[in-house]
Amino acid sequence: MTAAPPPPPPTAAPDGLIDDDADFEALKSPFVQTLIRVIRAHDAHGAWDNKNDQMLLRSFIVTKEQRKQLPIIGDPDPRTLMRLDQFYAAVGLAIENRTGLIAQPLIKLSHEGWGRVVLIAGKLVVISRSLRDVHRFGFPTLAKLAEDGAKLVEQGVLSVEAYPEAARA
Hints:
Number of domains: 1
Radius of gyration: 18 Å
Mean pLDDT: 88
Order of helices and strands: HHHHHEEEHH
Structural class: alpha+beta
CATH class: Mainly Alpha
CATH architecture: Orthogonal Bundle
CATH superfamily: Protein of unknown function DUF269
C-alpha cells in the first residue's frame, strides 16, 4: 500500500505571498482586512479592482533577500511612503472600529527616512513611534504584518481605555 502524496498546502498561492497556515490565517485577520480596505480606498480610478487581496499586500512583504539588496542608507520612494501611510491609516481605522474614536496618524519624516509617527485620538497621543530606515519599510511575512499591526491596535485601544476623558476631548 503506497502512502498518499501529501496534500498541497491550503495556503499555496500563485503569487507566492502566502507560504504557510500562519500567513493564510493572517490574511483573514481583522487588521489585514482593515489594511485591504484602506488600500482599496486609495484607488480612486479603479486600477486595482481586478487585483486580489494578496496582490495588493505584496508590496508590504520584504523578504530577507530583498532587504539585503536595499542600501543601508537611502531616501524613501513615493511608493514606500504610500505603504507607510496606508499601514498607519489602517492602524488608526482599526482603533476607531474598536473604540468609536477617530485615531488620526501624523507622520513627520526627513528626506532620509527618519522621523516619527503619532496617532492622536482627541487630545490623547495613543501611539508614538520613532521611524528609521523607512526606505526599507516592510514585513518578512504576511503573518508578521498582521502581528505588528494588531499589536499597535491593541496598544492604541489600551491607551484610549486608560485615558478616556483625554481621548474624547
